[in-house]
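Hi R.,

Here's the chain you asked about this morning:
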Amino acid sequence: MNSAADAAANATAPIALGVAGAAGRMGKAVLELASADEQLKLTAAIDAPGRSGAAAAQTAIELASADAIDWRQLAVLIDFSLPAGAAAHAARAAEAGCALVIGTTGLDAEQTKAVDAAAEQVALLHAPNMSLGVGILFRLVAQAARMLPEWDAEILELHHRAKVDAPSGTARRLGQIVQQLRPGSQFCTDRSGRRQARPDNEIGYAVLRGGDAIGEHTALFAGRGERIELTHRSTSRLTYAAGAIAAAKYLIGKKPGRYNMDDLLDELAGGG
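And here is the predicted structure, written out as tokens:
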């Protein structure tokens, strides 16, 4: 870079974006929004080896395996693949100096370690739900749990019939938020056959699966004579895609480390 003009041109250049899990439902939603975003340049559409053809109808970019792309060309990767893929992609991104947004859920302990290791080298944001509205829900649930310590807390979620993890990553995170503010509380996912009153320290999950429901999450706080229900409903996967793209833009220029949707929300609110 030899001049102020070069620096200005580089600052306004489109962000080279890769999408992993590009042939899946969420990958296609990200591609749809990214292809119309002048701040982004779709550079890679990654999916399982053997898949070929256009990544999405509205883009000219072709599907490719993780081995077939030049990771050094990417500024940031959005990953909506499978747990094993997300862990492998994290290692490749870290080696190439590529920032990483991971929306993939269901990672086991070893896969999470791989993500943690990547965050030591690049900026990385991993969230169970990329919706900005869900990020607000997390904050509201924390406030309710803090202010209503004696009220019973229950988490309800509904997703489409093809979703394989239960409870969902978002539901688990809602429960974790409550648990952090109520030390000693325990999660319960199945009350069938149990003949006893609800323990005070319990956080219950109710999981519903059916049809094509994209995602609904409710944190219910029940007291004596009253209850509060904090609910978020998604009616389009573009909601999650928009949040993932906002997260990708947020990471550009950030130092290596783990970031979350709270960090993004703070910046959007002018506090970052």
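One quick note: The two ends are 28 Å apart (CA to CA).

Cheers,
M.
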